[in-house]
Design goal:
This protein is an alpha/beta fold. The chain is 31% helix and 30% strand. The protein has an eight-stranded mixed sheet. The protein has a six-stranded antiparallel sheet with strand order 11-12-13-16-15-14. It has a two-stranded antiparallel sheet with strand order 9-10.
């Protein structure tokens, strides 16, 4: 019985191949890419051990979603080519069960490529770089093994989507992208090319592992700005630095750029992280519990999609719960989170602290929240859940919360007991 090492499994993935997909992250990777956001997958002996049957049984549970959306399973990593025998058996068993198979790889494995590709419907081929010098600079290794896998894909007429991470000062610039285009022209069966903006989501993993992050100080690519102005964020950063030197704006690390109406110290005083750090973290030392009214995946309606900056119909978690502090009802929360941004939320996370799951398990940093606060008449549900009298109001907070990389990850409505909620702010004239 063949066994393999699995780092994690993401259900309901939307960005790693067509349709709704289960994404399985294999342990093990030979490359040491400067921009890697999963250094915890490098070790071949890490993660959890699965048999092929155990893993495919988990994948198979989501077949109804695959059928409706044209999805399937994506085997990622690390690099799944580092566990070739296990990978072949998983792919073969998935194909027997009618599941679309996709392999997400940089093509740096241990051989048996023809056999792997026999059971692979699609490859997400990660082009780290297309020159020998550039490849070694990015990954630390020579390009040859990746080219061996590319030759196998061409030999087997494998369909592929090409991915390339655009990193300021490393793999960006007009000449670089043009040269990439010329390189791709010589590859057959390319159905799609994705330029992925460099992000900072994995930086904290290096800190936790006691490892040096070699791109320290490199700014994340701002997808919207780059598309609009056809420049890297490094260019934008230089322009902002010039404005700082002229005294026209002030910048604070981690909080953004501000018109210089007030001092940096005053700006710091306005930011109150407690106001969007979550009920659990705001009540340390107290017992915080939740009663779950609803927890399910739904397609986003237009208003939800607009606030989360996703497409209408994209899947989101819908979380409806009453929160208690020391067994006293404090707030009713109705929350929408895109599963492509905050994956694999479980009932245990919903019953506890979702923000702790985001920060501690996913390793993401919550940056800010835009809130609208209003008083409202209490409904019957409010009165029943929060133990209010008929003439007592609630304080409703409508909020869109953002990660450090600028992605909206939460759109929510929280209806608080009027006597249990306090908001502090500073007005500068």
């Amino acid at each position: 019985m063949i066994k393999g090492r699995i780092h994690s499994i993401e259900s309901m993935g939307l960005v790693d191949g067509p349709g709704i997909r289960v994404v399985v992250f294999f342990q093990g990777c030979s490359l040491r890419c400067k921009f890697c956001h999963n250094p915890d997958t490098w070790n071949c002996n890490g993660g959890d051990e699965y048999t092929t049957e155990e893993l495919v049984k988990k994948i198979e549970r989501f077949k109804p979603y695959f059928k409706q959306s044209g999805g399937g399973v994506t085997i990622s990593g690390g690099d799944p080519l580092r566990q070739p025998e296990f990978l072949i058996e998983v792919l073969k068993l998935c194909k027997e069960k009618g599941i679309h198979t996709c392999v997400d790889t940089a093509g740096y494995g241990l051989g048996e490529y023809d056999e792997i590709l026999k059971y692979t419907d699609l490859v997400l081929y990660d082009v780290k770089h297309f020159t020998r010098e550039g490849y070694k600079k990015v990954t630390g290794l020579e390009i040859d093994e990746s080219l061996n896998f590319l030759e196998a894909m061409q030999r087997n007429n494998t369909k592929m989507w090409i991915r390339h991470v655009v990193v300021p000062g490393l793999t960006d610039g007009e000449e670089h992208i043009k040269a990439l285009g010329e390189y791709i022209k010589n590859i057959k069966n390319v159905e799609k090319v994705e330029l992925l903006p460099y992000h900072l989501l994995g930086v904290n993993k290096y800190e936790n592992l006691g490892m040096e992050y070699r791109l320290e100080g490199t700014p994340a690519m701002d997808k919207e700005i780059c598309n609009k102005y056809d420049v890297s964020k490094m260019t934008v950063k230089k322009a902002l630095d010039l404005l700082v030197s002229e005294g026209l704006i002030v910048k604070r690390r981690g909080s953004g750029t501000f018109i210089k109406d007030i001092t940096e110290k005053e700006i710091h005083g306005i930011i109150d992280k407690r106001q969007f750090s979550g009920l659990t973290n705001n009540n340390l030392g107290h017992k915080v519990t939740s009663k779950i009214l609803e927890f399910k995946v739904i397609p986003a309606e237009r208003e939800i999609a607009n606030n989360l900056k996703i497409e209408e119909g994209d899947f989101v978690y819908f979380i409806y719960r009453v929160r208690y502090v020391d067994n006293e009802a404090f707030v009713i929360e109705k929350t929408y989170m895109p599963i492509s941004v905050i994956p694999d939320i479980k009932m245990s996370d919903v019953e506890g602290s979702i923000y702790n799951y985001i920060k501690d398990k996913l390793g993401l940093k919550i940056q800010s929240a835009h809130s609208t606060i209003r008083a409202d008449k209490s409904t019957q549900l409010d009165r029943d859940s929060l133990k209010l009298n008929a003439d007592e109001p609630v304080i409703e907070v409508e909020r869109v919360a953002y990660l450090e990389n600028g992605r909206a990850f939460e759109y929510s409505f929280a209806r608080h007991r009027y006597d249990k909620y306090e908001f502090k702010t500073i007005t500068v004239i």
